[in-house]
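Before relying on records like the one below, remember that each one covers exactly one chain. Contacts with other chains, cofactors or solvent are not represented anywhere in the record.
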Amino acid sequence: MRKYFGTDGIRRIANTELSPELVYRVAKAGAYALAKHTDHTPTILIGRDTRISGTLIESAMTAGFLSYGANVKSLGVIPTPGVAYLTKKLKADASVVISASHNTYEFNGIKYFSNKGMKIPDELEEEIEEMMDSDKLNDFTAVNDKIGVAEVRTDLLDEYVYFFRKNFEEDFENFNRDNFVVAIDTANGATSVVADKVFTALGIKHYIMNNTPNGININENCGSTHLDMLKKYVIENNCNLGIAYDGDGDRCLAVDEKGNEVDGDKLLAIISNYMKEKGTLKKDSVVATVMSNLGLKKYAEENNINCVQTKVGDRYVLEEMLKSGYNIGGEQSGHIIFLDYNPTGDGILTSLMLIKVMLEKQKTASELCKIINIYPQVLVNAKVASDKKEEYKHNPEIQKEIEKLEKEFSGNGRVLIRPSGTEPLVRVMIEGEDQNYIKKKAEDLAKLIENKLH
């Protein structure tokens, strides 16, 4: 069990659990692990979201890197995918994003990216952890002229804007955009500094909301985790589309012109179908996690697309894409990776891909969504003893009940059981055609698991 890193970097309450001292050690150990094979002075980029604790953590991070002897380029507030893109473009040795993504403002976190602009693998995170707690850390202290130098490079944000212009400007000039209006919710987060610039540069009429970060309003009843305000706005202002990003800008969810949510599974369906038509869908495949809706699998079957499933977590989606040569994958949460463009989820990129399909096909978002039928999903948590989270696999009664349910569904529903990585819970997820029926079945199964594994 890892001590500091979770499924998406280190994430804790800022300045208590995520103290400057801990951050300094993470930085020093990370600089060593990521740059030990280089024969030059390493350069590391740092980007952050809009949280009040961002500059505090960045200062401690910078101190750790400089103390190791690495040079730092501070990018200021910038979306996570912007950091990933610039890491590759500038040939930096590594980069760090200081963000707690969709969490509330009191949390913050640290995500490392390799020189390829990808989240680092589990093994490297384990190596960093080992180094953080060892006496060896003191050996990696630069002295005299070997101490690192930091510079502020907030101007590099323009390079990220140019990335979108380069990839979409020409296409969008050929589309009729006169009556096309988008509402954009930047969650008072990292996209607040860049979304307006991108959409203005591409000539897309837009309204921007939740775009005044004050350090504590990030994700507060807004963004991709709270769509109600955006849904209301889209309907009241007759928008063609609503777009919601999360705090660090690597996710995007949409709202159609009728105010209905367009989640990550629907986005994957719409865009992979478009790519298949264009002949750009590599191996006619889309990658999703086991939590993706059964509707995505059915859509793929009906359209002769191979739907590959991975463990939950965008890093596992990316690993599968790289291993097998696929170019689109993602999660229900709207974290979608387009490997032809960027090696991490990118909310702005996802929204522009959707808009491109809408404008080119001259179809509304609700029309495009008809391609996929989303099955009702119910998630119930079973409280269990923390040392018994895996035992459901070997309990004959639980297994018998799962088999019985799956036989009942005969392909039009499914049961997914998943132990929580952080809490003494086993998550019971059931999908099927009848909401009330699956709700009862999920509650019954969760009770059975609780009784057997308490």
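The longest strand covers residues 71-77.
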